Amino acid sequence: MAGSHPYFNLPDFTQPSPPSTPPSLPSHQRCRPSDATKGLLVALLGGGLPAGFVGPFFRMAYQASHFPSLELLICRCVFHLPIALLLKLRGDPLLGPPDLRARACLHALLNVLSIGCAYSAVQVVPAGNAATVRKGSSTMCSALLALCLESQGLSGYDWCGLLGSTLGLIIIVGPGLGTLQEGTTGLYTALGYVLAFLGGLALSLGLLVYRSLDFPSCLPTVAFLFGLVGLVGSVPGLFVLQTPVLPNDPLSWSCAGAVGILALVSFVCVSYAVTKVHPALVCAVLHSEVVVALMLQYYVLYETVAPSDIMGAGVVLGSIAIITAQNLSCEKEGQVEE
Q1: What is the pLDDT of residue 27?
Q2: Where are the stretches annotated Disordered (predicted)?
């Protein structure tokens, strides 16, 4: 054979060898992130982190010009209305299919109530504590509602993460609840915590209703309905329950615009994530909002952050790591890796 030894049939190393190419994985070994993994990552990066800026930004606007909570909710709803152009371009009905229209409007109403309670709570309670109570109540209510209504179970690691995140929230809020002042100030503070709890309950109900919606343009439809229902309810409520304010400083308007954009991103990401993974796990991962809010509360708003807040934030982050690690997996072509 030409180019090789006549006895041992060895290759001729004097000839240049073709460039080596890295071995490619067989098609059955190629994997991509599973739906649960994508849902948790979207909830963490697109839902929790942007939402952590909303409470502190609103508190800055309130401290600068006493920006009413319903007026900020109106500003946020305005950012949802341009989604109607997308629905029109796609030829989809603005209010969704007729048979699911009532349920879609109920989802929008529950989200409006949740956001309204949250914004009202931030006026009298530190932003980090309000986010803590709201996310904690939404997590536990989502877990209980899913077990009772959907018969959808959770693994032992998931329950460990849920209980750990709830424990972290109790560590953050517990000392503040035990030192409520007597009189009007203490009453307003307690009312703020109650509103934050009700906001979390409404959020968990809204997520459960959204999981029952199934039509092609579901996500843009519910996003538009949130803006429409929010405007219809907030505009009369602003003039009846609160006093409209027209801020003169650019800080208030900048904070209102930032709240509208960040909240819209968070709304879309959370709505997407809840279709991929259990709503209780989505709410647990959204506890990252609490950590971000506490950091901004200390470094931007110059409000006190107690050692218990830092300890509770660490427990929350550890619980998020447990839930995320438990649900990390990849799907192979034609096979799912558990």
Answers
A1: 47
A2: 11-30
